[in-house]
Amino acid sequence: MSIEYWLAWLLPLFCGTGVCALVARRWGRWSDLSATLGSGWIVGVLAAAAAARIVGYDDTLHAFPNAAPWLAALGAAAWAIVAASLVVRRGRGFVPAVQGEPSPASRAARLGWWLLFAAIVLRLLVLADEASLRPVFPWDAWSAWALKPKSWMLLGHVEPYVSMHDWLANPHAATRTAGTWFYPEFVPWMEIWFASAAGGWNEPLVNLAWCGALAALALAGYGTWRRLGLSAWLAMLLVYLLVSLPLVDAHVALAGYADLWVAAILGVAAFAWTRWLTDRSPAHWVLAVLLALCLPLVKLEGLIWAGLFLVVVLLERLPARWRGWVVAVVTVSCVACLAFGVRIPAPGFGWIELSWSRIAIADVQVYELDWHPVGDALFASLFALPNWHLLWYALPLLVFVRRERLRVDPAARFAGLLVLLQVLFLAGLFFLTKASAWAQDYTSANRLIMQMVPCVFAFAALLLRPRSSASA
Amino acid sequence: MRRAAFVAALAASWLVLLLWAAGVDWRAPVFPDSERMFPGSRFRAAVGRAVVDGSVLRVESPDAENAALQVTALPAMEADRFPVVIYRFEDFPRTLELSLVFRTAERPDDVQTISLPWPGRGTMAYDMSAIEAWRGTIIELGFAQFPTAHLVPAAEGFAPFRLRRAELWSPSWRGAVAALVTDWFGAWPWSQRSVHALGREGAASGVRSPVLFVAIAATLACGWAMLLLGLRGRRAVMVLCVCGLIGWILLDLRWQSGLLQRLRETRVLYSGLDWSARQKRVADDALLAAAAQVKALLRDEPPHRRVLVYSDSGYANLRMIWHLQPLNVGAFGLAAAEREPIPEDTILVFLQTDVWRANPAVRRHVSESERMFPGDVIHSDGFERPDLLMFRVRHVY
Lengths: 472, 397
What we know:
Chain A is mainly α and 472 residues long. Helices cover 71% and strands 5% of the residues of chain A. In chain A, the strands form 2 sheets. In chain A, strands 3-4-5-6 form a 4-stranded antiparallel beta sheet. Chain A has a two-stranded parallel sheet with strand order 1-2.
C-alpha cells in the first residue's frame, strides 16, 4: 500500500475530526476522543467524496492528489479554530482536563471491557482480511454502485450517466448509461477517492472503506454512549452487540452496497442528536441535521430516513405546548389526504398523489396500497434467521424493562419516537406496497432494516443510561 | 434444594428444547433401528474420474465442465424409513460445493439435488424428512461437486479428495441431533444472498433455527428462575438478560466460526496474489475472456462508440457490462425497449444466445447490420450458436 493510500484514510480523519472537535468543544476524555474519531472519519469521508467530485471531474486518476490539499486545508482550518478557541478559553481560566474515564467499577468489569474490545478488534480484522482479498462480489456492488467509479477511473475522467433514451438519442455525446444511472453518487465518489489514492482501480483497497465505516460507527457509538453516562463495559458491550450483527458483518466482508454507509451516516447523526438531547449542545444538533441531509446523497431511501429524522428533530425543538397540536394537525391532514385523495405539487417530480388506495409520483412510480401478508417472512428474517442474533427479541424486552425511563426521560422518548416512526415506515412499506416482495423473497427487506439499526442502538443507550445521567 | 430443582428443570427443559429443535420424532428410538452403510468403494464416477482405493473412492479429476459426480445404485429403499443421510469425505477442497443427488423408482428420470454444507473432516448428517422430493423408493444415491458458484473460477476449484462412506439411517434421536449439529455448524460459502439474508443457503431441513432455540432457552431459564427460585422483578429480568447475553455470545461464536471458514476459502483463492492477478481470478472467467476479446476487436473504435450487450442470462449480461468497462456499454434489452432507434454504427454483442436469429424483434435489428465477429460463418441462415457474436448496426434508409 502506498503512502497516498494511507493518506486517503488519514486525511478524512484529520479533516473530519477537526470539524467534530469544533462540535464537541471538549476532548479531554477517551470517550470524547472516541466519538470525535468515529464521527470525524465519517464526516471526513463525506468531505473527501465531495472534494473528489469537485476537483476530480475531469481527471479522476488524480482526484486524490488534487483534492487532498483542499481537504487538508479544511482540516487545518477546523483545527486552527479549535486551537484558537482553546487558547481563548484558557485565557478565560478554562483548563482542559486530560483525563481518563472514571475507572470501571471492578476487576471483572475491566476484564469484560478488554475481552469485548478484543472481540471487536478481532472481528474487524477478520472482516478487513476478507474485504482486502476479494474482487467486488455482491450483485448490486458491481452492477450498480461500482460501475460508475470503475468506468470513470478507467477512462480517467467523468462521463455523465444518463437514461437509455438520452444515450440513444445523442450517440455522439460523451455520455454513458446503466439501469442505475440515476442513483446518488456519494459511494462512487468515495470509491474514486480511495481508488485514485491507490493508483488505479483496485477493488479490495476500495472495499476496505466499508470496514472503516463500521469501525468509525463503533468508535462514535462508544464515545457517545460513554458521554451519555453508560459505564465503560456497558458502552463496550453495546458496541460489541452492534459489530457482531451478522448482516452488518456480511456487508463489510462483501463490501460494495451503499446500505452500510446509510446506516453509518444515519447512526452518527443519531448519536450527535442524542448528545444534543442530553447535553443541549447546539453544535451537535447542527451536525446531526447536516449529516441527515447528506443521506439522500448516499441512497434514494436516504430521503425517507432524513425526512423521518428531521420530523422528530424539529418536533423536539417545538415548545412542548405546541407539539400535541402539531402532531394532531399533521395526523388529521394525513388521514384526510389519504381518505379524500390529494395531489401535491412536488418540484423535480411534477406531483405526488396520495390516496387511500395508492401513492403515485407523476404516474412514473405508482404504489398501489393493498394488504400483503408478509408476516411469516418478516418474522423469519427478524427472529429466526441468523441475521440479527437476538436484537429484535432484546429491543421490546428492553423497552418493557426500562419503560419508566421512557416516561421520565424526554431524550429516550424522542429517540423512541424516531425508532417507532422508522419501524412504522418499514411496516407500511412491506405490508402495504409491492415492496412486500422484498420481504417475501428475503432480498432488500433486511438491508432496509439494517439502515435503521444504529438508531435502535442509540435508543437502547438512552434507555440504559443510569438514572443520575438521565436526570442531569 | 430449590437450586437443585432449578438446575434439573433447566437441564431437562433445555434437552427437550434441543430435541424439538432437532425435529426429533418422539416415537423414534434413541439409536437408529436400521442403518445401511455404503463404503466409498461402492460408488462409481458418473462424471469425472475416480478410482477405488481400498474401501474409499479417490476422486481424481472433474469432467470438462469441471464437475464431478459419484453415484451408487441402492437396493430399493423406502425414503420414509431412511430419512437421515450420513456422509464422510476426506481432503475435500474448500473451493468446491457439495450436493446430494438421488433418484426414486417413482420418477427415475428426475434427478434431485440438495445442497450440502462443506463436509470438512468429520462425519456429517442431513435430515431429509422435510425434503419434498425424498419420498417413495430411493434407487440411486450420489454426491456431486462443482466449483462454488459465483466465487471460484471454474477451472481452479477442483483438487483430489476422497469419499469415505455414506450411510442411510432410520429415524432416531441420535440421527436427528447429528443432523442438527451439521445444520447449525456446517460451513457454507458466501453467496449472492449473503448481503440480503443469511441462513438460507441450503434446502429447508427439519432442523429449527439456532436463534429461535437460544431465545426460547433464555426464556425458559427466566421462567424456571421465577417458578422455582421465586425470583421476581429485577432479579428475574437479570436472569433473562444474562442468559440472553450468553446466548448472543454463543450465536456470535457460531457466526464467527462461519466467517473464518469463509475467509479460509477466500484465502485459498486470493492469498499471495497481487491485484492484477486477483482481478482475473473470478468465477466468470469465461465472460472475462469474452470481454477481453470484444475490447481487442473494438480497440480502434472511437471512444464514444455505443456498445449493447445481450445474453439470455441477466447475470451474464450485467457481468459482461462490468467486464467491458471502460467501453461505452449498455444493455441491449433496455435499448430495444426504447422508442429511440439504435444508432448507426452501434456495436451489438450477443453472448451464448441464438436470440439474434430466433427472435424476430431482435433479428430486425441485425438483419441489415454488418457482422463483425465471427466473420467466417454464414450470416443468420445457419443454426450456429457461437459463444460470442458481434454486429455493427446498419440501417437501410
